[in-house]
Amino acid sequence: MKFNLKYCVLFVFIFFSSTVANSDVLYFFDYDKFEYIVGEKKAKLLVGYTKNRKYSDKRSRLTSSFMKKWFGKEQELRYTTVYLLDKDLIRQVDYGKEKILETTFSKLTDPDLDSKIKKSRIPEAVEIINERYVVKKPVMSVKEISTSGTVGNYPVNHVQITLGMETFDKKKNAISRTEVVMNLYLTSKIEGYDEYNNFIRHFGKRLGVDSYKFGNLERLSQFLERPLKAAEAKKTEGFPVKTTLVVKGMYITKPNTSSEKRVERILQKLTIDLKKVTKGPFDLKLFEPPEKWVVKSN
Predict the structure, then answer these.
(1) How many domains does the chain contain in total?
(2) What does the pLDDT look like over 26-76, one tens digit per residue?
(3) How far apart (Å, rounded) are the C-alpha atoms in residues 235 and 32?
(4) For residues 132 and 37, what is the distance between their CA atoms, to the nearest angstrom?
(5) Exposure of 210 by Cβ count < 10 A (0-12 exposed, 13-18 middle, 19+ buried)?
(6) Within a domain: residue 269?
(7) How far is the first Cα of the chain from the last one, in angstroms, to the nearest whole number?
């Protein structure tokens, strides 16, 4: 049998090209959340990454006695979000309302958005709020707790972010205080890390904001009054193998007096645990709604 070098080289090229191009990854999470009024929510979260795309699907069950009493049974919810960087599009699917909402990135990156929001506020209402309330700037810290731990089979860095917010009501002589503590267990030693990291980086660049605001600190980004320092942002890099979040609320009447009273509540507790990772092409039908549903632009 005659050896043909040309076909051998071609075979090797095709084989390794197809192998390297296989950049899809799918992450399976358990998502447990408690909210003060709604109660417990248990969910399965599925997140997939391909080149320039992110797919997210969350299926939840509201299991609290409050929800059973209100609706007569456990509530089941499903939401799917697809980020298509290559098409300049975000698609959100609400299965309860049987609705698909599409938004272009250009609407999220409007340079005049802040000024438009401010102009839409009623001046009289803003004046009344400013006269009655004193809002302190949020106080935040980012601490590296440990760099040698493990979660599952993954080596992780344990990072803790704390955030404190406080508003003083001059009319009632009362303080409303919110404390947030987030624990992140981060790793770069996981299947598909490059795909995850590249998407977060390009997504932030596309929107013109720091990538951490749409990465591990997304749930806190709305409260951040200042950008993270370079050293702080560096600590929050990595894939979140586990995330915990606790939000506490405190209401203090007649502070610093003999009549002072305090009421504290756990407003929210959240735990997100990675359960499984699969590397390779995944079925996009996992994230596709029925074709009959109407697409609305936002």
Answers:
(1) 1
(2) 999 999 999 888 788 899 999 999 988 999 999 998 876 666 666 666 678
(3) 25
(4) 27
(5) middle
(6) yes
(7) 64
